[in-house]
Amino acid sequence: MKMGNSMRVYEIAEGWGKLPPHIKFGYTHGIVVDSKDNVYVFHTEKHPVVVFDREGNFLSSWGEELFDGGAHGFYLHSENGREVLYTTDVNKGRMVKTTLTGEVLLEIGTPDLPNIYDSERKFIPTDVCVAPNGDIYIADGYGQHYIHQYTADAAYIRSWGGLGNGVGEFLSPHGISVNIRSGEPELYIADRGNHRIQVFTLDGKHKRFIDNDMDKPDNFYFFDDELYFPDLNSRVTIFDKHDQLICHLGEDQQAYKQKGWPNLPDEYYRTDRFSSPHGVCVDSHGDVYVAEWTVNGRVTKLERVFNPNVTITK
């Protein structure tokens, strides 16, 4: 079974991701891939980080002592010759940096900003990214709708944002990543509740909006000159280097309108349609992995087809 359009085609790897009997997915929020094409899934049940090889064979799991059902943002970064993970925990209100096997390297909790945070106004971080110079950016997507910037060793630099729909304001800045495709690094922020992407300089100055061909962008994954993002309203989107649409994948414009969504009856889900995409990544072969926000989790692998004449099943 295939997915895509005349410009981009993928073969669905049905049954990918073989969980052992002692592990059950919760909400599958984040997904990343390392330099060996091993795939890491971040979810809200026990064993919150689950690692597979490229073929979907289970390799390992960890994190039960570290995360308590709050798994959310998930970012893999290469620094000083090794790969590390940056995570956000919406239950504990913190960002945690770890090795690929779960050793804690750094933690950042609620910013010391009494004009923004107090006993009632919580810090609930949904995503994190790292700039080329090592600065860390944390998106408070479920709390007070701010972006916070730190140095690589967690020294506070600045914050910007706040609730609203104007320039530099947010309604759930749910995802954040660094775009280096143009040569000048930029921050892409998924302003999900406002149905748009906002683009900033690395020091927080607004540059532009992107609001075409999206509904509720969750976060971002840059691969070569392309931008991939899960749209919570039932599709995955690929943009070219100019942020113009290449294709939507697995679009189901009825799924998010169903009663009880995102937790729909098992019989509703279809192999070639998405319901609630929340995370996406791309391996070195151009294959795409999608994690969906649903109570029993859902992870799909799409294998890139390089023959443009392949027929797509509707």
Automatic annotation (TrEMBL):
Pfam families found in the cross-reference section: NHL (PF01436)
Keyword set, alphabetical order: Glycoprotein, Repeat, Signal
Origin superkingdom: Bacteria
Matching InterPro entries: 6-blade_b-propeller_TolB-like, NHL_repeat
Record GO cellular component, one term: extracellular region
Keyword presence, Ribosomal protein: no
Residue stretches of each NHL repeat: 125-153, 161-203, 274-305
PANTHER family associated with the record: BLL1368 PROTEIN (PTHR10680:SF38), PEPTIDYL-GLYCINE ALPHA-AMIDATING MONOOXYGENASE (PTHR10680)
Protein's recorded name: 6-bladed beta-propeller
